[in-house]
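Whiteboard transcription, Tuesday session. T.W. wrote the C-alpha cells on the left side:
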C-alpha cells in the first residue's frame, strides 16, 4: 500500500471515529468496510489514475460485491451483493477507495434521513438541522471529512437537498445518462445516481470519470442568459460574472402528475414486500405507500401525458435561457427531529419540479443551477466557484 493510500485511509478512519455517534455509515457486515479496505494491496501503476487515493462512500441503495445493500431498511441486507454497480466500478478503476456504505432515509424516500432501523443521520456541520434526505449519509460523510466524494441517488431531490443541508455539492444528471444497474429503485422514471463532493471542481472531476465528459470552467459567463426563479440570492453574483439575468417562473403545476407517477411506481417497486411486510416499514414510508394505493392505469397514463405536456410548455418558455438558478431548498432546512411529513412538501418543492422536468441540476449548497445538459450546469458552477462564490448555507 502506498503512502498516499495509508494517509487517506487514516484520515477517513479518524473522521469515522470522531463522528461515530452521527449514524453516518451503515455497517451491516461482519467488519467495517474501512478495515477490509486496509487489508487490500494495490499495486502502483506507472501512471496513477484520475482519482488515485481519493476516498468515497456510496449510498446503501447501491451494490458493492461482498457487501450488503440494506436500502436503509430492515427487510434487505441479509445477503452480500454478488456484483458491483457500474458507477462504483468506474470510481474504483479510477483509483478511488471505498471507505463505507452511507446511511439514508429508508428506501430513499424522505427528506430528513431519520432512520428507525440504522439510526437517524446527524448533520456534522449544522447540528440543529437534519442532514436532508434521502442521501443524507453521503452528504454528512463529506461534511465530516469521512470521504472526499460520494455517490447518492436522486428521485425528487435526494442528492440536492442533503447537499444544501450539509453545505456540500451534488449533481443530479438526466435519467439514463449513467447506468442504474446495481442500484435499488424507488420510482424508475425519475431515479438517477449522482456524484457528491465538497467543491464543484471535485464534482466535475468525478463526473468525468463516471460519464467520460470533461468540463472546463469558462473565464466568464459573458453571453450566457441566466433565468432566475424564486428570488435566488445569487442572481447578482452571476450578473457580475457577465451573465444576462432575467426572471422566470417554475411550472409548479407539474407536481401533481409527478407525484402520481412516483407513487404508482413506488407501489410497484414494493409490491413483493408491501403490504405483506408492512410491519417492517417505518410509519412514514407506510403512509406514503398507502397514500399511493389505488392509482390505476388510466390515472397513471393521464399523469404521464400531463407531465409531458408541461415539459413541452416549459421548454418553450426556456427558449433563449441557457441555465436557470434557484434556491435548492423550497423553504427553511428541516430541523433535527422534525416531523418529516410536515416539511417534505415545502423542502422539496423546487427540486421535485426540476426532477419532473427531466433536467440536470447542480446543487451548490442552497444554490441550484439547472440546465439542458450536465456540462452546462457544471460550467456555470465552476465559473461561479472560481469567481469566489462560497457554498451558500441553508436557511
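and on the right, the sequence the group agreed on:
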Amino acid at each position: 500500500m502506498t503512502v498516499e493510500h495509508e494517509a487517506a485511509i487514516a484520515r477517513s478512519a479518524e473522521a469515522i471515529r470522531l463522528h461515530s455517534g452521527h449514524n453516518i455509515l451503515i455497517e451491516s457486515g461482519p467488519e467495517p468496510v474501512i478495515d477490509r479496505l486496509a487489508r487490500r494491496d494495490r499495486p502502483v501503476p506507472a501512471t496513477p489514475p484520475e482519482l488515485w487515493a481519493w476516498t468515497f462512500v456510496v449510498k446503501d441503495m447501491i451494490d458493492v460485491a461482498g457487501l450488503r445493500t440494506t436500502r436503509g431498511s430492515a427487510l434487505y441486507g441479509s445477503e452480500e451483493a454478488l456484483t458491483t454497480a457500474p458507477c462504483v466500478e468506474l470510481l474504483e478503476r479510477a483509483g478511488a477507495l471505498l471507505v463505507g456504505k452511507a446511511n439514508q432515509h429508508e428506501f430513499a424516500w424522505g427528506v430528513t434521513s431519520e432512520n428507525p432501523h440504522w439510526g437517524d443521520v446527524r448533520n456534522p456541520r449544522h447540528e440543529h438541522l437534519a442532514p436532508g434526505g434521502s442521501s443524507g449519509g453521503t452528504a454528512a460523510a463529506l461534511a465530516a471529512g469521512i470521504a472526499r466524494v460520494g455517490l447518492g441517488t436522486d428521485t425528487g431531490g435526494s442528492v440536492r437537498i442533503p447537499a444544501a443541508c450539509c453545505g456540500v455539492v451534488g449533481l443530479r444528471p438526466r435519467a439514463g445518462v449513467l447506468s442504474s444497474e446495481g442500484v435499488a429503485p424507488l420510482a424508475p422514471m425519475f431515479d438517477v445516481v449522482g456524484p457528491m463532493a465538497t467543491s464543484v471542481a471535485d464534482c466535475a472531476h468525478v463526473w468525468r470519470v463516471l460519464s467520460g465528459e470533461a468540463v472546463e470552467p469558462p473565464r466568464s459567463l459573458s453571453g450566457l442568459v441566466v433565468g432566475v426563479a424564486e428570488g435566488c440570492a445569487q442572481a447578482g453574483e452571476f450578473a457580475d460574472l457577465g451573465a444576462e439575468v432575467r426572471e422566470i417562473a417554475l411550472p409548479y403545476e407539474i407536481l401533481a402528475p409527478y407525484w402520481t407517477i412516483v407513487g404508482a411506481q413506488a407501489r410497484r417497486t414494493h409490491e413483493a414486500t408491501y403490504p405483506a411486510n408492512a410491519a417492517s416499514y417505518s410509519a412514514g414510508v407506510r403512509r406514503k405507500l398507502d397514500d399511493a394505493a389505488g392509482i390505476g392505469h388510466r390515472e397513471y397514463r393521464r399523469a404521464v401525458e400531463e407531465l409531458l405536456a408541461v415539459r413541452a410548455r416549459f421548454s418553450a418558455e426556456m427558449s433563449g435561457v441557457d441555465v436557470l438558478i434557484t434556491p435548492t431548498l423550497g423553504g427553511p432546512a428541516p430541523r433535527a427531529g422534525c416531523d418529516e411529513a410536515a416539511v417534505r412538501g415545502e423542502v422539496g418543492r423546487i427540486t421535485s419540479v426540476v426532477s419532473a422536468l427531466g433536467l440536470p441540476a447542480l446543487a451548490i449548497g442552497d444554490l441550484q443551477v439547472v440546465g439542458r445538459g450536465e456540462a452546462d450546469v457544471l460550467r456555470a458552477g465552476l465559473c461561479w466557484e472560481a469567481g469566489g462564490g462560497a457554498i451558500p448555507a441553508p436557511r
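Someone added at the bottom: The chain is about 35% helix and 10% strand.
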